[in-house]
Design goal:
6 strands, globular, 3 helices, alpha+beta
């Protein structure tokens, strides 16, 4: 699957996503050319947040305040603990309905480091894809 299609899907799904949030993040879990799961950010928290390093810009823990991020949402929907060979692709649609930076936060990066994905990609400010370095 061409990753460009995932940006198009994100733009198509964005109007259906709650507009009261600052931005809409989408995470796609892929196996070869097939989408296995799609997650999106929600304001509701999840118990898994308590296990990871969610901090604000002042480095104060906020794991009990943070909603469910798109990465966690997609992983929960996938329903498996085995992520070998899978690719996660993050996109973000801002309030202007443009693709924007979707680099995983510290908490999500901490969580993703435990999972063994083959590759994790995210959109940058220019709407291009970059690979997350988990090492």
């Amino acid at each position: 699957m061409k990753y460009k299609k995932l940006k198009e899907l994100s733009l198509a799904m964005a109007p259906k996503h709650p507009s009261d949030q600052r931005c809409r993040h989408f995470s796609f879990i892929l196996h070869k050319k097939k989408i296995l799961a799609v997650g999106f950010n929600t304001p509701k928290t999840h118990p898994i947040n308590l296990k990871h390093n969610f901090v604000n810009k002042k480095n104060v823990p906020i794991h009990d305040l943070v909603g469910t991020h798109s990465e966690l949402s997609a992983i929960i929907k996938l329903g498996t603990e085995h992520h070998d060979g899978l690719v996660m692709v993050n996109t973000r649609v801002n309030r202007k309905n443009e693709i924007d930076s979707s680099m995983p936060c510290n908490g999500c990066t901490s969580f993703l480091q435990t999972l063994n994905f083959k590759k994790i990609l995210y959109t940058n400010k220019q709407g291009d894809f970059e690979e997350l370095n988990l090492k």
